[in-house]
Amino acid sequence: MTAQRACGVDDVAVSAAVKVELDGIAVAIVKQSDGTIHAIGDTCTHGEISLSEGFVEDDTIECWAHGSQFALRTGKPLNLPAYEPVPVFPVTIDGDDVLVDVANPLTQNS
């Protein structure tokens, strides 16, 4: 795994997202209400909108511009207008650091 530090665990509020750039890839680091942290591609596949500026609820993130929701675990869109998934990246917590491996996405846009 080629994980690199994306941010600190405490840098991400519960039910919120933080945008980071790793190796030229925009990534939204998201913390669910149960404390689980996810790394998902930050760009909505419908409208080139930053997902980290959207809304986090349960295990989804919603694009603020057009309302498409994406599953945090799979990157799949759950409603229109988006129909293409966003990538999901492996996350490791190392002490107070969130490490993300953008070189080996768990899912790819198809």
UniProtKB/TrEMBL annotation:
Alphabetized InterPro entries for the sequence: Rieske_2Fe-2S, Rieske_2Fe-2S_sf
Lineage top rank: taxon: Bacteria
Residue ranges crossing the lipid bilayer per the database entry: none
MF (Gene Ontology): 2 iron, 2 sulfur cluster binding; dioxygenase activity; metal ion binding; monooxygenase activity; oxidoreductase activity, acting on paired donors, with incorporation or reduction of molecular oxygen
Domain Rieske: 4-100
Cross-referenced Gene3D superfamilies: Rieske [2Fe-2S] iron-sulphur domain
Signal peptide residue numbers: none
SUPFAM superfamilies to which the protein is assigned, alphabetical: ISP domain
Keyword set, alphabetical order: 2Fe-2S, Dioxygenase, Iron, Iron-sulfur, Metal-binding, Oxidoreductase
Protein name as annotated: 3-phenylpropionate/trans-cinnamate dioxygenase ferredoxin subunit
Organism: Agrococcus carbonis
